[in-house]
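Researcher: Re-running this chain for the archive, since the previous output was lost when a drive failed. Same request as before.
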Amino acid sequence: MTTQVNKLGWMLGDLSSMPEVRYAVLLASDGLALGHSESVHRDTADKIAASTSGFHSIGVALAPYTGGAKNGLRQVVGEFDEGLLFVKTVGHNALLAVSTTDTVDVEVLTYRMNGLAERLGSELASPARHQGGEGGIRP
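Model: Regenerated structure tokens:
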């Protein structure tokens, strides 16, 4: 079921229906969950988004050491005992996290993640949020 708090979750159907994919979460680069697959609870998606943001930040910090000073980060992959976590930049300030088992077809998964980024990148862009003044409203 798509709710107001998961209004972007529908975009993850192609990825989350793949064999060996556990879940997918769309998030702003500051850690705010924007959408999640139906296979993950909203509270868990929020925790994943916050953690994924930090994981991605480490990759951003390391980017200059893997190329030039303007070397951009496209994707970070974590390999764990029981699976993989892919984190891909999909728009301005927007990321996609996909958790899989260790037997996922990585080539097909990254192809689909890249396709989603190309098709929907501008719609997934999340503008940076700014704290308003005292009592102000966040846009």
